[in-house]
């Protein structure tokens, strides 16, 4: 990336545009990831394609975009904070414009990942409930298809009748604030930090070094297609690397559970129960889906960011 100064408003615009475009493109795959990671015992879906096909059949095309509204609303500040914070910390840690060491690059990524959880945690909290509602409704249908469900299924059916009413993000947020206060929206913040900090520590240094390979000289910006491929590659690697932590975070933030599914007391308890009851393979659930989500999402983000769309808009509309 070139060393020219980029204003904070431009960074916010770049991050917002990148987030909106990226999320719109890959949201159905993200929905499949959430449902695959949440299913325990009774398997409704055998994989990503099976999940998407069944979702379309049971809920229609727009069923694949459940939870997209909250994501599209909050992804702008989330992506803007992440990208701008990484730039800020890189500049803070650099000495007279010299190349950062790998340790300092990871430290800058750590700072960016820490800052973004302010937005990421409530966004993911609401999105996961909306994404998983269809899976719970489908599981309930399967459980009751053969006649009267067992006692635990009846209890579940009564407690989650709201699933069929298609809860909205506003309704969920209001309910959480009323019953648990602001802490309700930040349930799983520890697990989110444990996931997002390592992700950023892997992603940003890897992207910076991959992107540097496309620069003809130290002061030039890499071609946009190289930034896209570097963002995709770094995003996919970082996403797969933290899949274990993503599974734990998703399970902890899911409020409504299906028939016979575990509830957890915290991050360590969640990891222990998954290992004991489902084996190590459960920690890799949705790894392919997450890589397919994150790769283009961050590829698009870096193209928008490095092309300077925000600077262009401010210069021409200001």
From TrEMBL:
Keywords: Membrane, Mitochondrion, Mitochondrion inner membrane, Repeat, Transmembrane, Transmembrane helix, Transport. InterPro entries: MCP (IPR002067), MCP_dom_sf (IPR023395), MCP_transmembrane (IPR018108), Mito_Solute_Carrier (IPR051028). Gene3D superfamilies: Mitochondrial carrier domain. It is found in: Mitochondrion inner membrane. Solcar repeats lie at residues 6-92, 100-213, 222-311. PANTHER family: MITOCHONDRIAL 2-OXODICARBOXYLATE CARRIER 1-RELATED, MITOCHONDRIAL GLUTAMATE CARRIER 2. This is Mitochondrial glutamate carrier 1 isoform X1. It comes from Huso huso (Beluga).
């Amino acid at each position: 990336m070139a060393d020219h100064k980029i204003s904070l408003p431009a960074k916010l615009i770049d991050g917002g545009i990148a987030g909106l475009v990226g999320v719109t493109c890959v949201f159905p795959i993200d929905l499949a990831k959430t449902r695959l990671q949440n299913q325990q015992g009774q398997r409704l879906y055998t994989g990503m394609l099976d999940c998407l096909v069944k979702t379309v059949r049971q809920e229609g095309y727009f069923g694949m975009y459940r939870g997209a509204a909250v994501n599209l609303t909050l992804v702008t500040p989330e992506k803007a904070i992440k990208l701008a914070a990484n730039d800020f910390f890189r500049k803070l840690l650099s000495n007279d414009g010299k190349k950062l060491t790998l340790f300092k690059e990871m430290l800058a990524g750590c700072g960016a990942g820490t800052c973004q959880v302010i937005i990421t945690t409530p966004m993911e909290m609401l999105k996961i409930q909306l994404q998983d509602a269809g899976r719970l409704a489908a599981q309930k249908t399967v459980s009751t298809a053969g006649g009267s469900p067992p006692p635990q299924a009846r209890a579940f059916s009564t407690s989650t009748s709201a699933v069929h009413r298609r809860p909205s993000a506003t309704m969920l947020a209001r309910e959480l604030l009323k019953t648990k206060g602001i802490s309700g929206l930040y349930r799983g913040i520890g697990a989110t930090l444990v996931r997002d900090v390592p992700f950023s520590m892997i992603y940003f240094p890897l992207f910076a070094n991959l992107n540097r390979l496309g620069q003809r000289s130290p002061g030039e910006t890499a071609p946009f297609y190289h930034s896209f491929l570097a963002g995709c590659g770094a995003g996919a690697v970082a996403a797969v690397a933290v899949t274990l932590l993503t599974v734990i975070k998703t399970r902890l933030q899911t409020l409504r559970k299906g028939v016979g599914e575990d509830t957890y007391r915290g991050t360590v308890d969640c990891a222990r129960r998954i290992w004991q009851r489902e084996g190590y393979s459960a920690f890799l659930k949705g790894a392919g889906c997450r890589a397919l989500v994150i790769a283009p999402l961050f590829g698009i983000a870096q193209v928008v960011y490095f092309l300077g769309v925000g600077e262009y808009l401010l210069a021409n509309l200001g």
